[in-house]
Amino acid sequence: MFSRYVDVLSNLPQYSKNIFRRNYFGWLISQCRGWGRFSYGLLLFNLVLQIISLVQSFNTAPIQSIVAFIGGNLSVACVIGISNRSGIQGWAGALSAVCIASVGFVAGNYATACEQLGYLLFLDLFCILDPKWNDNIQAEKFEKSSEWLYYALFFAGAWVVFYYLFSMTNDPRVFLDSLNLAMAVTGSLLELNRKREQYFVWTIASLFTIALWTQTMLQGDGNFSLIFSYSVFFLNDMYAFFSTRGWFRTAKTK
Question: Which regions span the lipid bilayer (predicted)?
Answer without folding.
Answer: 38-55, 61-82, 94-113, 148-166, 199-218, 224-242
